[in-house]
Amino acid sequence: MGFKRKKGDGDGEEMESEVRGRPSFNTAERRNVILPSMIKNKDKRAKVYAKQKHEKKVEKQKKIKARDAAEKQALELGEEPPQKMVPKTIENTREADETVCRPDDEELFADIDADEFNPVLRREVTPKVLITTCRFNSTRGPAFISELQSVIPNSDYRKRGTYDLKKIVEYAKKKDYTSLIVVHTNRREPDALLIIGLPNGPTAHFKLSNLVLRKDIKNHGNPTSHEPELVLNNFTTRLGNRVGRFFQSLFPQEPNFRGRRVVTFHNQRDFIFFRHHRYIFDVKEDKQSGAKGKDGVAKERVKPRLQECGPSFTLKLVTLQHGTFDTKGGEFEWVHKPEMDTSRRRFFL
Length: 349
Prior knowledge:
Layout: H1 10-20, H2 27-32, H3 42-76, H4 106-113, H5 118-121, E1 129-133, H6 140-151, E2 155-157, H7 165-174, E3 179-186, E4 189-197, E5 203-212, E6 229-233, H8 238-248, E7 261-268, E8 271-289, E9 296-308, E10 312-321, E11 332-335
Parallel strand pairs: 1-2, 1-3, 6-7
Antiparallel strand pairs: 3-4, 4-5, 5-10, 7-8, 8-9, 8-10, 10-11
């Protein structure tokens, strides 16, 4: 049953404010607290907001100066400085995971020595990649595939036509390809990658998003034919280690450093960001003041920088399957399901 609350009922107001999670104020305190949202005049509201923002900034600077002074004083006295505050992020507050790789995990090293990628990573076999598309290709699909060919050495493109994917897998095995990449498109846009390890698997299905081709990157560079260096970041779990080794098996294990090419797979919150760069060494003149302070003495100094070559895109692992592609009888190692996303701090790679 509903009832009207009395106008002067202070206990009811405090109870209601506590339920809502807001601090309770009596009538006198409410008069002193002025929020910008309570002011109807737009100009006055903007001035009050700017004033409060400036006061917060001044208070923050005072805290920083006090912390720096305390640290300087501790160093002068020979004491240990106070510990620096580490900001809390989603990455450093992630949920504990038992599958995180450890340097003393003998079982992990045994699995690595016996996995499907070992011949390529031990340089016993040279990686050779076949790239194809889905049956209905798009306008951006060929442009994306041509840029993939410039990124991955020893890669060939074959038109899909009407062939079944299992027949293409058998063809790639006969031609001694070590991997097969299928670019799937939807609504004239590449939206997925299917990577199949040959001859024994595994098969990984990735969702593809945020694709930017080379021509759309400002001040992009043109890659050379040198074999690139490979950088894999933040693949910390057993599943992440397996996915990272899968990417590693696509590239030769002897990079040519003269080409100054870098291919990066950066994992952050289970999103894998792909980037392709060249690093350039610019020689610039460094002007330092002479003894008189007027004439400058020119000295050369080398300044490195990165130049993006493209393409850039983002991958999200959907499934990882044992063996080659098999939709009916295939055994899945890992499948992403919506009910697994129970927390923002739970990651799998």
